[in-house]
């Protein structure tokens, strides 16, 4: 599953990473030619705020309680 998100501020990135870190499946974040682990605060900070980011979610069983969080930052 792929979705696009955009973070306006650094605080939003921190909140997002704290929540997705609880997920039992892998989530990657892609921006241009960069791909980082979306559970990595350093990786997500390297991408930065104000850019459209594509999330690649690797789960066969859906995203459960992360759906609302992703909608919050939908691009």
TrEMBL record:
Pfam families reported in the protein's UniProt record: PTS-HPr (PF00381)
Protein name, per record: HPr domain-containing protein
Taxonomic superkingdom: Bacteria
Domain HPr: 15-60
Signal peptide (UniProt feature, chain positions): none
InterPro entries: HPr-like, HPr-like_sf
Organism the protein comes from: Blautia parvula
